[in-house]
Design brief:
The structure holds two protein chains of two kinds. Chain A is of the alpha/beta class. Chain A is 46% helix and 10% strand. Chain A has six helices and four strands. Chain A has a four-stranded parallel sheet with strand order 1-2-3-4. By secondary structure, chain B is α/β, with parallel strands linked by helices. Classes of the chains: A alpha/beta, B alpha/beta. At the A-B interface, helix 4 of A face loops of B.
């Protein structure tokens, strides 16, 4: 019995080892990155007033789902985190918790001037001066609020970044 | 014109001559009353019971460092009379204690909490005077006071 368990564990280890090796193999890696780039399910963390833009982007006119970005309610199944607007000191802790709950690999887009650098509230006592002080950010989309076109450009940039394997 | 407003002012002046410092009609539907802090709860109860002031619109603070005092402003609507009263009272900056009006209007709960957090005015008798909008571990003082230092240049 014990012998068979050991054998099984060994096989599992070998399997994982093989998978790891295959993932590093360039064609497979490219394929995985391609798949990731076109199915970025997103959490939208509506901390501020860039969040109404989400409705414009996700609805039929601009339709971000063409690029595989589906706003999704469960953050444990998502790969992309949108920071929509100003992040206060109190919210900073919650942003971090949200980010840590997401599975790897995960990407972050900071939307709007406030999320990038504090924006209008550069001298405030209670606003985080840029969300990149708390979590790593992949793409910054400026604007107050950013137009849906800018948003989609940000998405395309992120897709390019993923497909290039960066 | 201004019949209801003038009646409110007159009644308050007659009933509490020792507490009312100043009472006047500002314009249509707006009345301002400055009272001493000892008589605040009594006047508030009178406003609710006899003059039908029933809805607290806001509680705010004003900082006067040169006079060394903090002013608390209660804006209270009377829905039957359609009059908004500004009930003002001052507390010294060194000892900012004021009795809470939670026994008169339940609606002041969150407003007083916020005023405490931003100006440091302690409302005695308030059931839950804890951090509301600021982070839970905030220790940099009271941000709406005039001696609070903000950033002078972007980071």
């Amino acid at each position: 019995m014990k012998n068979s368990m050991e054998k099984r564990e060994g096989r599992c280890k070998l399997f994982h080892f093989e998978i790891g090796k295959i993932q590093d193999w360039k064609p497979v890696k490219d394929l995985l990155n391609w798949a990731r780039a076109w199915s970025l399910w997103s959490v939208h963390l509506c901390t501020g007033c860039c969040s109404p833009e989400l409705m414009a982007v996700a609805c039929s006119r601009f339709d971000a789902e063409r690029f595989g970005t589906l706003p999704f309610p469960t953050l444990r199944e998502c790969d992309l985190l949108f920071i929509l607007g100003v992040v206060t000191e109190k919210m900073a802790k919650r942003v971090k918790i949200t980010y840590e709950q997401m599975p790897e690999p995960k990407y972050v887009i900071a939307l709007g001037d406030c999320a990038i650098s504090g924006g209008l509230w550069w001298d405030s006592y209670n606003v985080v001066q840029g969300v990149d002080k708390i979590i790593p950010v992949d793409v910054y989309v400026p604007g107050c609020p950013p137009r849906p076109e800018a948003w989609i450009q940000g998405l395309r940039l992120l897709q390019k970044k993923i497909m290039e394997g960066r | 014109m201004l019949k209801v407003e003038e009646e409110v002012v007159k009644t308050l002046k007659q009933t509490f001559p020792e507490y009312v410092v100043e009472a006047k009609v500002q314009r249509e539907k707006r009345v301002t009353v400055v009272v001493k802090r000892e008589g605040l709860v009594e006047i508030a109860r009178f406003l609710r019971d006899s003059l039908q002031f029933d809805h607290v619109a806001s509680v705010s603070g004003v900082d006067y460092p040169e006079k060394n005092e903090l002013m608390v402003v209660y804006h209270i609507w009377s829905i039957p009379k359609k009059v908004l009263i500004a009930l003002k009272t001052s507390v010294p900056r060194d000892n900012p204690h004021l009795s809470s009006l939670i026994s008169v209007w339940e609606g002041v709960n969150y407003f007083e909490r916020e005023t405490w957090e931003m100006f440091g005015i302690v409302f005695d008798g308030h059931p839950n005077l804890s951090r509301f909008l600021l982070p839970e571990d905030w220790n940099k003082g009271f941000p709406f006071r005039k001696d609070f230092k903000l950033r002078t240049k972007p980071e």
